[in-house]
Structures are given as C-alpha cells and as structure tokens.
Amino acid sequence: MAESYAEQLERVQTTIATIEQKGQAYGIGGRRLDRADLETLYTRENWLRLMADREANGGKVRVQYVVPRD
C-alpha cells in the first residue's frame, strides 16, 4: 500500500527537523556524507502539505485569499 500524502509529509518534516538540528553533513568511518538538500525538502514539504490537505478534503482544493495591506 502506498503512503498517503500526510504520511509522506510527516516523513519529510522529520527529515527537515533532523537536518536543522544536526546539520547538513555527517561522517561515518572517515567518510563525509551529506543529507538531503534543505531547499528541495522545503519545496517538497509545501507540495505535500497542499496534497495532504486536498486528500483530507475529499479531493477538493481549499483556496485562501489574502488581502494585501498597504
């Protein structure tokens, strides 16, 4: 069974939190490894948030209008 958008969102947010707390790179056995790119994860998080919201609303898109202040 495929993960829901909400489950994917939770996984991406956990990954983002790990990178924000522990840093982008880490070492194992004298090798340097980089975790996933934060900008890519932020973009994915935003998309998954929209899709999870749509999934929770039975496929309907919720539109929110914001009136700019002068």
What portion of residues belong to β-strands?
5-15%
* Biggest β-sheet strands, sense, barrel: 2 strands, antiparallel
Question: Can you give the mean pLDDT?
Answer: 89
Strands, total number: 2
Given as residue ranges, the uncertain stretches (5+ residues, pLDDT < 50) are none
Shape: flat
Question: Level of helix content?
Answer: 40-55%
Distance between the termini: 49 Å
Output the strand order for the largest sheet.
1-2
Q: Radius of gyration from the CA trace?
A: 17 Å
Number of helices: 2
| Topology as a string of helices (H) and strands (E) | HEEH
How many separate structural domains?
1
Structural category is mainly alpha
Report on the architecture of this protein.
This protein is mainly α and 70 residues long. The chain has one domain (5-56). It contains two helices and two strands; from the N terminus they run H-E-E-H. A two-stranded antiparallel ribbon has the order 1-2.
List strands and helices in order, with pairings.
Layout: H1 5-22, E1 25-28, E2 31-34, H2 38-56
Antiparallel strand pairs: 1-2
Outline of the structure:
This protein has helices at residues 5-22, 38-56; strands spanning 25-28, 31-34. By secondary structure, the protein is mainly alpha-helical.
